[in-house]
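Document type: protein sequence-to-structure record

Subject area: structural biology

Format: plain text, a pair of labelled lines:
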Amino acid sequence: MKLGAGKSMAKREHYHTSLTLPTANELNIFLEYIKNISSKKSKPRFLIIGSSPELREIAAKFKAKTTVIANDLEIIERTTKLMKIKNEDEEWLEGSIINLPLKKGSFDVIFSDNILSNVPPFNREIFYKKMKEIIKKDGIVILRSVVFKKTAKAFERKLTKYFKILRKDFGKEGLFSEYFPIYFLKPK
C-alpha cells in the first residue's frame, strides 16, 4: 500500500549511501534483538523511519506488519529494488514522523537508522516525543545514529528524558571521531 502527500521533488541518482549502511555485525545485533521480541508477539507491528532495505528485509523475515516512512516515496520505491526479500504487509508513508497522523501506542518496534542527521536540531525533542507517543508501552525503539564522541553524553541525556536505555551496542567507527551506536530504548 502506498500513501503519499505529494510527488517527488527531484529525481534521485543514488538509492542508498554506503557510508551509512549498517554493517553485517550491526544487522546481526538488530536481528538478535528482533528475534527476542518476535518470539513474544504473533504479528509484531514495525515502523521503519527511513527506507533502509536491510531493516525492511528483517521485518519481512518476521512477517511483521510494517510501516515505512520517508520524505519521498520515490526513495522507498527505489530502495525496494535493492531488497532480496519483499514484505507483502508493508505500507509506505511520505513525510515526517513529526507531522504524520500516527496512532498512539500502535507500534511494537520502531527502527530509526541514521535518521537524526535529517532532523533539524530544534525538532529533535519533538521527534523523540513523537516516537515515545506512538510506541507501545512494552515496545522497543532501536535507534542507530551518527554520534560524535565529544557530544555523546549530551545526546544520551536528551534521549533519556523520554526513554530508558536498555542496551547500547557499538557499530562501526568513522573517520572523524564519529561512531554508530545502536540504542535499544523503552519508553519512560
